[in-house]
Amino acid sequence: MPSLNKDTFSVAGQEFHSRLLVGTGKYKDLDETRTAIETSGAEIVTIAVRRTNIGQHRNEPNILEALPPERYTILPNTAGCYDAPTAVRTCKLARELLDGHSLVKLEVLGDEKTLFPDTVATIKAAEELVKDGFDVMVYTSDDPIIARELEKIGCVAVMPLAAPIGSGLGIRNKLNLLTIIENADVPILVDAGVGTASDAAVAMELGCDGVLMNTAIAAARNPVLMASAMRKAIEAGREAYLAGRMPAKRFASASSPVDGLFF
Asked: Which of these, 96, 81, 95, lies nearest to 50 by C-alpha position?
């Protein structure tokens, strides 16, 4: 029987037990950030380099003091970048600030209202970063063709959206995600759109390797409690996927056998 204790996934040669990845924005303060992330059980924590101090502003609180790299795998991201050159520069800044750290989350946005990715610019930035030695986890649309191209470029994980960033709408296109998962040889992680625990469970039941979220936890009325719920949902969804669900049927099917009964 599969055991979650031995059920790990790897990214860029690193092995992880938790399939829940979390962001660090939108919390009321660093104490709430720290407590929620500890409760989530996440091992990978993503930080928006352009919006968060990781050492570039010496006179401001450094989030790495609350989330030490010795405990968490820090995943600097390019949130807020709207063109490839800016995203590439941001990754290079993160590498310099984090002593040569090469694992990054690439996102190049194409529209301020929807925050949908600019897939053309994303591909361009991914090509440059991979050539420069970065291990790129990439945020993208749920287009299976784009996902396949990003894997061919050499991205170490592909992260299609479930719905627009921060929308909480849940998974809007299960079939596209399923197609991406079935054709991938790198980890596929849902990134953006999760609103509550059931959304995370569905993503895992589809076969995703993990889920990255921020707003769903940070914007909850009780972020720490929601972090706990998300942790359990990820684990339950993964167990359901490993167990293999029963076939869906149009009509009822008795739970108990009827053969041999006396009437």
From this structure: 81
Place of tokens 């002593």: 99
Helix then strand then coil, % of the chain, to nearest 5 = 35, 15, 45
Q: Please write the tens of the pLDDT for every residue from 16-36.
A: 999 999 999 999 999 999 999
Quote the pTM value.
0.91
Of 148, 156, 155, 152, nearest in space to 181 by CA: 148
Expressed in angstroms, the distance from the first to the final Cα of the chain is 39
Residue 209: both structure tokens together: 């390797």
- Report d(CA 103, CA 208) in Å as an integer: 20
Q: Which of 69, 78, 102, 105 is nearest to 187 (CA)?
A: 105
Clarify whether 105 is annotated catalytic.
Answer: yes
Note the pLDDT tens digit of each residue in 36-86. Answer: 999 999 999 999 988 887 777 777 778 888 899 999 999 999 999 999 999
What are the tens digits of pLDDT across the range 142-157?
999 999 999 999 999 9
Among residues 26, 105, 131, 174, which one is catalytic?
105
